[in-house]
Amino acid sequence: MSTDAAKPSRREQILTAAAEKFARAGFHGVGIDDIGAAVGISGPALYRHFRSKDAMLAELLTGISDRLLLGGKQRVDAAADPQGALDRLVRWQVEFALHNPALITVHMRDLDSLSDRDRRRVRESQRLYVEVWVDVLRRARPELDRPRARAAAHAVFGLINSTPFSAHLDTSAMSRLLRDMAHGAIAAI
Amino acid sequence: MSTDAAKPSRREQILTAAAEKFARAGFHGVGIDDIGAAVGISGPALYRHFRSKDAMLAELLTGISDRLLLGGKQRVDAAADPQGALDRLVRWQVEFALHNPALITVHMRDLDSLSDRDRRRVRESQRLYVEVWVDVLRRARPELDRPRARAAAHAVFGLINSTPFSAHLDTSAMSRLLRDMAHGAIAAI
DNA sequence: AGCCTATGTTAACGATGACTAACGTCCTCG
DNA sequence: CGAGGACGTTAGTCATCGTTAACATAGGCT
């Protein structure tokens, strides 16, 4: 009532449909009509809900990176020791990747279809998220310098975000496998 | 003289330029004129060397996946035992990713901008490459079933192919780090 | 009832961008 | 030397696609 609330349905519906389309064919490979068709309306009706096609992508990508960052921070804050924080970060990333394969794909692939402004915004969130990992990694293993920790974090993201490319296991088995492999990779640094 | 040989220079030059452009902006984000400009000629002159823009992408992607597959097979054949084969596969993938970050990026991102025919061709090579890994993994650790081995292979690819996203370490340090993490991840299965 | 807003629809418009045409130039080879 | 092919150039063409315009309709609020 106070600020802006109360209109979740249609926008969200469009966004998730767009995410799946983008994931499958790439941002430029999807037409405005395709997205409309996916939610039962046709073409330009989308402009009642979004200022432009780019605005959809922007909202998707900023949403993803913000959610990742926020979730990561929360898990770290809730942890007692560095090892616990690391484990929670791994679980968080695995959970996110497994539940949102389309978002992961779009996030990795279509970032540079964004306007400079939005791209900078997303990259900043990404950078902060990486720094969350770097800090935790270095607390867990003090001999690690920042550049190596950063590279390791990227590698672990790559490992976990491989989900959209495999996905032939059921969710819980996949989750277990990715967690184990991530911890194994980190332990080997 | 006999079959087709003898015209490497210009085509290759165009292909590597295109690869870099595609890696930076995505296949649809790059214009024919951009690619031309990158090699000093302008626009439609490219059609003296390629039948279409799609043909460039096709040649790039089939080239990559064929090289990966061939290289992988060779390393495995040259190895004495399963452990050795695994180590050689890891080294091969790391080496390839570190030396061809643009190719890796395009390979992961623009696959579905291909025609059905070409896409199928590339995917088949990819599948065979994965199977090379799966076989080696299962010989190295007989208790592993194929679905898990496949998922693990994809995860290791993701880990190693993260290179284009980090790259703040020098090549040899990065190579060492990725190899260690890959082996650690595999050991943790 | 009567209006206003939210939400659609279809029919243009305009830009972009891949591709082709028509035309030059040099290098090679008979 | 002179013809032909390899390689470029610039100026169209044509399709696609994002976006806007003009026009409906349905539901809530006064």
Automatic annotation (TrEMBL), chains A, B:
Keyword Transport set for record: no
InterPro entries registered for this protein in UniProt: Homeodomain-like_sf, HTH-type_TetR-like_transc_reg, HTH_TetR, KstR2_TetR_C, Tet_transcr_reg_TetR-rel_C_sf
Keyword entries, A-Z: DNA-binding
HTH tetR-type domain mapped to chain residues: 8-68
Location of the DNA-binding region in this protein: 31-50
PROSITE patterns attached to this UniProt entry: HTH_TETR_2 (PS50977)
PANTHER family to which the protein is assigned, alphabetical: HTH-TYPE TRANSCRIPTIONAL REGULATOR RUTR (PTHR30055), TRANSCRIPTIONAL REPRESSOR MCE3R (PTHR30055:SF237)
Record-given protein name: TetR/AcrR family transcriptional regulator
